[in-house]
Design a protein that fits this description.
4-stranded antiparallel β-sheet; single chain; 17 helices; binds uracil; 443 residues; glycosyltransferase
């Protein structure tokens, strides 16, 4: 076999066999096939696509390229949740304790974010002492004893995906449905989940800007999961504005705690209830979404979700008093209000611009080596649909040491991100569709 023939076959719209996909991925992993040939193949896939069988084979090949976690020592159905990425998305912080308090074991391996704001691990590390490093035995013991643990990905999970994703990032081949679907699902399969709930974002701040593309991506991932024996469902949720009001690590933990107490922003609470309900149903703890929702609401109202969060924090070495008094979490020194230039109604908030602004302040990483500042970020004051008067505050920048130029740039980006309309803006849907192996239900 020769890589050049397989590139040509895909370029001309052909279908690659399991053996041909294995040849490319294994050859690339071992360094036998160079970056330029895999770049050309990825571009051919970008234009020609792959069918469900090819996408499934690519997923498996990448899942098998490194360690595969065996979660079977943990009793119960292990349900993983994955979001395709959004600004202000702190759902894992809420869902891990919430779902665990309802009896579904959460063995969560999370990532750090590159770009925009930090990942779940960075957010949790805003709590002083919170450790995301632990060996597998302790991880299993903690999930067995208290029902949940959130750790960094240890070992060598899907190295082929890591290498391919880095290459796609610099060759304009990220936005391909089969490549995204296989990349996400290979990590979920290797991480050992029995069932998977996907939160596929749609809108200006998402990979997929249109609802049709988001549904197609969701269907591709649900097909892969189903084909590989993992019960998989996908919720399509809005990313035409950030989720909640806080963007930045400690700010997001504060908002997560408020949500666990039942006082969080309505959009964040609603997305968590929808995703959490799917997790409870797949985890066998509720017969349908309505029952699951009522269980989750009860666990918020009676304090057991917050109590579970404290248990997780304590077990992972974090300072529980910061959960009890979130004002003691890291806090910035300077606050800069971004004010509206015109009166009207907020029509949309470009989530990506807000994410970049938060990164400029130091909340996210510009390069892998960047050190993030857990205290800084952006607190929105206005969301889509809100009325605003000229001169009123749209958002507050929480600033430490970013430097004048970056702060000015961040300020300009936040102002630009807000689209103000003269007309009232009707409420926007938060969740657009549910995709399961049986089809698509639009809300
Ligand atoms: N997230 C991933 O893990 N992979 C992609 O290809 C895109 C988003």
């Amino acid at each position: 076999m020769r890589a050049v023939d397989l590139i040509q076959k895909k370029r001309d719209g052909g279908e690659l066999s399991r053996e041909e996909i294995a040849y490319l991925i294994q050859g690339y992993s071992k360094g036998e096939i160079p970056d330029y040939q895999i770049s050309a193949w990825a571009m051919a896939v970008y234009f020609q696509g792959m069918n469900a069988r090819e996408t499934g084979d690519l997923t498996l090949e990448m899942a098998m390229s490194g360690d595969q976690v065996d979660l079977s020592p943990i009793a119960g159905i292990k349900v993983d949740k994955h979001s395709t990425g959004g600004v202000g998305d702190k759902t894992t912080v809420v869902l891990a304790p919430l779902v665990a308090s309802a009896g579904v074991p959460v063995a969560k391996m999370s990532g750090r974010g590159l770009g925009h704001t930090g990942g779940t691990l960075d957010k949790l590390e805003s709590i002083s002492g919170f450790s995301v490093e632990m060996d597998r035995e302790r991880f299993f013991t903690q999930v067995g004893e208290i029902g949940a643990a959130v750790i960094g990905q240890s070992g060598n999970i899907t190295p082929a995906d890591k290498k391919l994703y880095a290459l796609r990032d610099v060759t304009a081949t990220v936005e391909s449905i089969p490549l995204i679907a296989s990349s996400v699902m290979s990590k979920k399969i290797a991480a050992g989940a029995d069932a998977i709930v996907l939160d596929v974002k749609t809108g200006s701040g998402a990979f997929m800007k249109t609802l049709d593309d988001s549904i197609a991506l969701a269907q591709a991932m649900v097909d892969i999961g189903t084909h590989l024996g993992r019960n998989t469902v996908a919720v399509i949720s809005d990313m035409d504005q950030p989720l909640g009001y806080g963007i930045g690590n400690a700010l997001e933990i504060k908002e997560g705690i408020e949500t666990l107490k039942g006082h969080g922003p309505k959009d964040l609470e609603e997305v968590c209830l929808i995703l959490g309900s799917q997790m409870l149903v797949l985890g066998g703890k509720a017969k349908d979404e309505a029952e699951a929702r009522s269980i989750l609401k009860t666990h918020i109202e009676d304090g057991s979700a917050l109590a579970k969060f404290k248990q997780i924090v304590l077990a992972q070495g974090g300072d529980v008093t910061q959960v009890e008094s979130p004002d003691t979490l890291p806090s910035a020194r300077t606050f800069i209000e971004v004010k509206a230039a015109t009166s009207g109604y907020v029509e949309s908030i470009q989530a990506e611009q807000i994410g970049i602004a938060a990164m400029l302040l130091g909340a996210g990483r510009e390069t892998k080596e960047s050190v993030i500042d857990l205290a800084v970020g952006i607190q929105l004051s206005k969301k889509v649909g809100d009325a605003v008067a000229a001169g009123e505050t749209l958002a507050v920048l929480h600033v430490n040491d970013a430097g004048v130029n970056k702060v000015q740039e961040a300020e300009a980006k936040v102002l630009e991100a807000y689209l103000i309309s003269a007309e009232p803006v009707p409420p926007q849907p938060l969740v657009f569709a549910l995709v399961t192996k049986d089809g698509v239900t639009r809300y």
